[in-house]
Amino acid sequence: MKYEVVMGLETHAELNTISKLFCGCSTKFGSEPNTQTCPICLGLPGVLPVMNERAFEHSLKAAIALGCEIGRFASFDRKNYYYPDLPKNYQISQNYFNIGNNGYVDIIVKGEEKRLGIHNVHLEEEAGKLIHPEKSDADYSLVDFNRAGVPLLEIVTEPDMRTIEEVESYMQILKNVLLYIGVSDCKMQEGSLRFEASISLREKGSDVYGNRVEIKNLNSMKAVSKVIAYEISRQSDLLDNGKEILMETRLWDEVNAVSKRMRAKEEAHDYRYFPEPDLLPVLIDQKWIDEVRATIPELPVEKRQRFVKEYSLSDYNAGILTDDKSLADYFEECVGLSQDSPKELGNWIINDVLRELNERKVNIQKFAVTPKMLVELIKEKTAIGNAIAKEVFVEMANTGKDAPSIVKEKDLTQMDDASELNDVVVKVIEENPNAVEDYKSGKKNALAFLIGQTMKATKGKANPKLLTEILKEKITGLK
Amino acid sequence: MLLHELTASQIREKITKREVTAREIVEKLLEWIKIKEPLVKSYLCLDEEGALSKAKEIDKRLNNGNKVGLLAGVPIAIKDNMCTAGIKTTCASKILGNFIPPYDAFVVKRIKEEDAIIIGKTNLDEFAMGSSTENSAYQTTRNPWDINCVPGGSSGGSAAAVSADMAFMALGSDTGGSIRQPASFCGDVGLKPTYGRVSRYGLIAFASSLDQIGPVTKDVFDAALLLQVISGHDNFDSTCAALDVPDYMSDIDRLDDGLKIGVPKEFFGDGLNAEIKSALMDALKIYERNGAKLVDLSLPHSEYAVATYYIIATAEASSNLARYDGVRYGHRSRLSSDSNIVDMYSQTRAEGFGNEVKRRILLGNYALSTGYYEAYYLKASKVRNLIKNDFEDAFKKVDCIICPTCPTPAFKVGEKMTDPLEMYLSDIYTIPANLVGIPGISIPCGFTSAGLPIGMQILGKHFDEKKLLKVAKLFENETDFHLKKPKLNRQD
Question: Is the CB of residue A3 less than 8 Å from the CB of residue A236?
Fold first, then answer.
């Protein structure tokens, strides 16, 4: 392609506070419409906002985690526009003095690190939700204000992304950062993490930005990827045909997988921002910043790099393990308890633990197999063999019992005794003369059949290495 | 003296001493209101039932020997821009014509806790925008001293009710003079407290950085009493100061020697009515005779106060009034079947708001628009700071500032309705206190030859209401202007 794609992302993350940003109403998701409202979040005449300190601190934490410059104070502004889901017809947001400016996020694409600029991080209030009746001839719409006033963090990047992979990596890492620092639950299905993308194209080598198209209504990372692919193709087609890209806002239509014009530049709102007179600026001193900084754990990218270095994991595996902070913690607990290689522990977690978690749809904190149990099992493996160990693991996940008791209960210790195995092998050879003949005549896979039969006879307990040796020896001896 | 002519403090004393029952007071007052209200039109609604039932409750508690509050049994009027749970609150606007708040404003809660009796809601300029109460969508309130004159505004209903003895005290709100100017026109005491002294929670916002609730009373002591009750921190208003409230009533008659009074030349210049000027000069002499020292002052930026005010106040108002859209409460226009949400907004607002409110919404939106914000709103904010600096410098030299409350006495109904600029100038002396956030009180200091009251304004330092009240009380103790009643108050 002869164009360079220039992209930026605005992310809205609902903060996971118990109460709303300016009143005491609950932020619980999924309640009956308008049951979590009060005069304040309904914008009744005469009410005033009072800042939720926890929401502010969460935002400060996010701004610090995203490497932002923090000013001596942050203040709030009114963003004026009319929409029926906005009770006051203005949104209390930040425009002049944001909580954080000029931050960054380091992303990793194909093992390569890249630093993306964060333009600003600011706090604002969520709007309500319009509910349109299904009947097409209905002459009304309903509004649910349960979400109105939920604290919303907005994170705006610089136009620093150039590929879909970079955008995907950014979204994943940003989500992980927010989860790691515990300020948002980032549940996309509940709308608590949403995106708006801006995309422009320019000739490769040009240093002038092309006309920017903004796309709203992106409720999943998948939608972002799809819309980018769609826009790149739409915009390059236009440019190829000598047409102009209009500066406009478009809406992503998930069902038909197309973007549609929402409004042209000329129709853009004039938000008439001005300082919110009902709220005082929040003063931020160094002590507060230090205190909040101290609560920020090691962030996913640092952790991933450390895992590669310290535990000799592949970047890919380190990425999976650090994707979820509690999974990373689980892994490191195992490493601390075990004599086995971190690589082996990592493989167990990635292959077996994640599979069982997925099947059971539980998170790692509620998983029956604790790190101690997993380490014990892996230690036991030399005695019971890999195949049995995998079965024991499933049993552990099912019952919550530890490896030694399952092994004992089911008498699963590997048959390592050559004479004992010898008897079984002799019996198998006797019972399968055809297979023995096949093997002798050069059909190698006949050996696998015989191994299988022996395993069956020992209920899988036979030491596979020893068994293979004895089998070969016996058959050769028959010559 | 007849019962309704007494001050609030006198009423409270009579009730607590059991010389009269609260019920008797309410009944007598309602009788008087029935006679005089048709002439004055100060109330938008009366809560007779609620008042009588609260009066009975207070009497019962007194009979049982229980404790009662600071305002026990005192019938009080509330400007109709403060939310009263269960009582219609209209802001004198059609757009809130059917609005019954589900909650009480902080000040309403406080006066209820102190056992005041809410007698009714008073008229105002729609959304408190105006200086004559003529901008009410419902009725024009008349000045009890001359019913051809306006009572001032926007708290004209409260000021007229107190002046006509139809309420013992009242709550008003002051954004650019809306307590002090009508108090001056009606011969009342009107106090605008420091911004942040009284919670604005439940006051229907006009201009959030300027609005403040305060008392309209018959004398200075009553102003101290009502301020005592409504002051103090409120967790529901972030701009309300978390400061202790001094005892405003104790030692109100004791003023330390060496009082220094600033006399700003800008407030005595062209445009000031000669009779008012001479009344002020006489008043200053009384202070001098009582040992005060007069200090000539200049507040050079005050000439920009009105212009600054009309940028900031309208900008904030344009945003504050955006919520009246017909979606959730208040008036909603009847729509034709092919109309959309924008039609609903524009028709609802076109029908619901009066001309002055529309004018200010337009001005405010203009001042905040992209490309104009810096030239208007931001510039006005900077000038506001210059005006603040003027006052800060002045208060390094003096304890308080004395000047006229208004450049003219009450004007005729209709006289200024066709000239908004002329109307805006009516607040020229009161606006600075709102921009700066300092307290100001207006007290009666004389009468014109036509018999209309003249008001004197005393401005003080931030949160120095106690001093302000003492300075006002000294004058009141030396004069009897506050005791004069309008002819209208005579029993026929």
Answer: yes
The per-residue DSSP string of B21-73 comes to -HHHHHHHHHHHHHHHHHHH--EEEE-HHHHHHHHHHHHHHHHTT----TTTT
pLDDT of B369-380, one tens digit each? Answer: 999 999 999 999
**Is it the case that residue B347 has pLDDT exceeding 60?**
yes
pLDDT higher than threshold 70 for residue A81: yes
The mean pLDDT of chain A is 92
CATH code of A471's domain: 1.10.10.410
Assess A34–B contact: CB distance below 8 Å, yes or no: no
Flag if B103 and A82 touch (Cβ within 8 Å).
no
- Which residues in chain B touch residue A274, judged by CB atoms under 8 angstroms apart? 315-316, 319, 368, 373, 377
Q: Residue A425's pLDDT is what? A: 84
A39 touches chain B (CB under 8 A): yes
Could you give all domains of chain B from N- to C-terminal order, each with its CATH number? Answer: 3-260+397-489 (3.90.1300.10)
Domain that holds residue A109: 3-292
**Which residue from B minimizes the CA distance to A88?**
B323
Among candidates A39, A143, A274 on the partner chain, residue whose Cβ is nearest the Cβ of B368: A274
Q: Are A135 and A180 in contact (CB under 8 A)?
A: no
A151: left (phi over 0), alpha (psi -120 to 50) or beta: beta
Query: Taking Cα atoms as reference points, which of A272, A88, A124 lies closest to residue B204?
Result: A88
**What pTM does this model have?**
0.90
Domain check: are A182 and A74 in the same one?
yes
The distance of B86 to chain A (nearest Cα, Å) reads 14
Among candidate residues A292, A320, A350, the one where a domain is terminated: A292
Does ipTM come in above 0.90? yes
Structure tokens at B345: 């907004």
Residues A202, A166: one domain? Answer: yes
Convert the pLDDT of each residue in A248-277 to its tens digit.
999 998 889 899 998 887 778 899 999 999
Comparing alpha-carbon positions, the chain A residue that sits nearest to B367 is: A272
Residues A63 and A126 in one domain: yes
If asked whether residues A132 and A20 sit together in one domain, one would say yes
* A306 and A431 both lie in a single domain: no
Residues A148 and A271 both lie in one domain: yes
Q: What's residue B375's pLDDT?
A: 95
| Same domain as A422, residue A362 | no
Q: Is A273 on the interface with B (CB under 8 A)?
A: yes
The CA distances from residue B318 to A90, B205, B274, B365, in Å, are: 11, 11, 37, 6
User: The sheet that has B117-122: what strands, in order across it?
Assistant: B43-46, B117-122, B75-79, B169-174, B212-217, B189-192, B440-447, B453-460, B400-404, B260-264, B293-297
Q: Residue A449 — pLDDT band, cuts 50, 70, 90? A: confident
Count how many domains chain A has: 3
Cβ <8 Å between B373 and A274 = yes
pLDDT digits 0-9 by tens, B82-104: 999 999 999 999 999 999 999 99
Partners of A14 in the β-ladder: A152
Catalytic residue ranges of B:
79, 154, 178
Query: Does one domain contain both A268 and A362?
Result: no
**Would you say residue A478 has pLDDT above 70?**
no
Q: List residues of B whose CB lies inside 8 A of any A CB.
A: 82-83, 89, 91, 96, 99, 101-103, 105, 200-205, 207-209, 235-239, 315-316, 318-319, 322-325, 327-329, 337, 341, 345, 365, 368-370, 373, 377
Contact criterion met (CB < 8 Å) for A43 and B328: yes
The answer to whether the Cβ–Cβ distance between A50 and B235 falls below 8 Å is yes
pLDDT digits (tens, 9 = 90+) for B123-182: 999 999 999 999 999 999 999 999 999 999 999 999 999 999 999 999 999 999 999 999
Q: How far is B254 from chain A (nearest CA, A)?
A: 36
Half-sphere exposure of B210 (CA within 13 A, CB side): 30
* Chain B residues touching A143 at Cβ < 8 A: 327-328
Domain termination site, one of A243, A266, A292: A292
